[in-house]
Amino acid sequence: MRTLVIDSATAACSAALFKDGECIAARCELIGRGHAERLVPMIGELGPLDGIDRIMTDIGPGSFTGVRIGVSVARALGFALGAQCQGFSAAPLMAAMAFADHDRIDELTVVAIGGHGEYFLQPFARPLRPLGPLVSMPFDDAARGATSKFIAGDAAEDFVARRRGGEAIALTPDAARWPLIAEMAPLPPAPLYVREPDARLPEMRR
Asked: What angle is formed at CA 168 by the lines to CA 94 and CA 142, rounded to 5 degrees?
């Protein structure tokens, strides 16, 4: 089984190629913006893509643009290569990365940068049990809702500083660490929207 995993949901951009569960090539860069220009060349740097059986893409939460870029690239490659295309969520991946790197932590809250000044939050317990749903909320609500001492994710340092308490575990999703959540049920390859879209269709005139 050959699996291509891509992630462009946050300020990081990463891609990894697996054969029978073993990572044989990987790239990860913290680029901020420019995922549309960097992701495809990065995938090409992994080596030949012939024989790819499955493509996994991060569907969020994260940057609206970054998530859509990753999903679009995954779908296009899946069609071109005749490979199955599936999704995974950034939240459990970041939680799994934090648990794997910090043995002393039994509970944490993943906090990611959301839109319009909001934060994405989801609490987890070791080994990777969700303690609540993924939500998006303003800082004041998020500070009350995130009761965990340990905060992990791309917004961890900012969140802990604003809350004036807790311990930040700054990290971004990395495609090379996808095996940490490989046993989770795959998700549809479509952007994961936690909050209602700001743009609405115009109402029909009567």
From this structure: 80
